[in-house]
Amino acid sequence: MKDPSFVAFATQKGGAGKTTLTVLTASYLYYVKKMKVLVVDCDYPQYSVKELRDRDLQITRINKSFATTVKEQLNNLDVDPYPILMCRPEEAMGKVKALYDKGEHYDIVLFDMSGTINNPGVAKTVSLMDYIFIPVTADKIVLESSLAFAIKVRDEILTLPDSSIREMHMLWNKVDAREKTDLYDKYEIVFEEQLLTTLKTRLPDRKRYSREVGEDGDRAVFRCTLLPPDKKLLRGSGFPELLDELLGIIKL
């Protein structure tokens, strides 16, 4: 039984897109790439991923078209929806280990982290990640917050003797096409000065990223815990390119 890769999209500022990125990655790798995926929702106290799963399940009881699509998807793949483990940050690794002790195993474990890096439980769990990807936008407040988070991880967590972090990368999210490209290039120079690397893939600002299923109708959905992102909506989203880059780094 090989060890899984522990991966987190993490930052301390809301609105950067870490939960959406976690869900999209989990659904794409599980339903499309057929990898064994576990999502650990330790974004206490809101538990955003678990809340989305509950909402998806509730809509299957209301929207017959959506329920049929989900049933056909799961039957064709012969799988249940990927598991979501809900816990406090300080309990996360213990609960994952307990699943392994029971014989469960995964290719990748995705953590949706609480943003309060000053919490000892959060800091300890962050230190046990293999890879951390920090979403950042051109918004000044988000940018400064994400940069401060990355520097704190670099200076106070990466240096711990029992830290497992192999790589940490900044990730441009919600890139506005109206912004000049050199704006992002200039910010990346700042990251480089802080010894922080940035992923090549930049995710554009698209409403489709938050497009969920409705209570009626059969519109295509992008963010869902029971289905993969719709193929048509994937085009031009930058997300397949991002996953290819991430998988290359993680070597999955």
UniProtKB/TrEMBL annotation:
Domain of life from the UniProt record: Bacteria
InterPro entries: CobQ/CobB/MinD/ParA_Nub-bd_dom, DNA_Partitioning_ATPase, P-loop_NTPase
Location of the CobQ/CobB/MinD/ParA nucleotide binding domain: 7-79
CDD domains: ParAB_family
SUPFAM superfamilies: P-loop containing nucleoside triphosphate hydrolases (SSF52540)
Name of the protein in its database record: ParA family protein
Organism annotation: Paramuribaculum intestinale
